[in-house]
Amino acid sequence: MSTFPRMHVSLYVSNLAASVNFYSTFFGQPATKVKPGYAKYVLDSPSLIISFIENPERVQANFGHLGFQVETSEEMNARLEVARKLGIVSKEEIGTSCCFAVQDKFWATDPDGVQWEVYYFHEDAEFNDPHYAEQDASACCMPPVAVAEEKLKLKIAEVQAANACTPGSGCC
Q: Which chain positions lie within coiled-coil regions (predicted)?
């Protein structure tokens, strides 16, 4: 079985040693290359080259998430069991509807907050699990734009109220 084409991802990290410890556990193998401020893993399954560059100023939060789909439900369960034993599971979702698909999945979060999803796809769905519309983006799906806009409006209103003058006080 060919491992090409192979996807490449490069992430900035705030602490290379912490990231190497996490990813060696998460991927189940040591880094292929470690240099000052740099580490790389070359994986056959999933077919991926991922590198990490230590640069705390460039770490970006809330970009979404990364993940990979496994071929069978048995493989997902086996990976979940290993991840549980290693203590890296941050969330489990079995039989969930996410991104308009029924999936079994688990999540692991790296030291900089990057979320990794490992999932088995059962079938397409005509709906998204409604609980994703009520929560912050702690897993697969982002809340609707209206929810995010409403949170922004509340924050602006709170700032305006905190800095507002009492009518007739002469501060304005």
A: none
| Residue 93: strand, helix, or coil | strand
Q: Residue 67's beta-bridge partner residues?
A: 117
Contacts 24+ apart (CB under 8 A), 99-107: 99/128, 99/140, 99/141, 100/124, 100/125, 100/126, 100/127, 100/128, 101/125, 104/73, 104/76, 104/77, 105/67, 105/76, 105/140, 106/76, 106/79, 106/80, 107/65, 107/139
**Sheet strands (E) in 20-134:** 33-35, 38-43, 48-54, 66-69, 91-98, 101-109, 115-124
Please give the model's pTM, rounded to 2 decimal places.
0.69
User: Residue 18: in which H helix or E strand, if any?
Assistant: helix 16-27
Give the whole-angstrom CA distance, residue 69 versus residue 79: 11
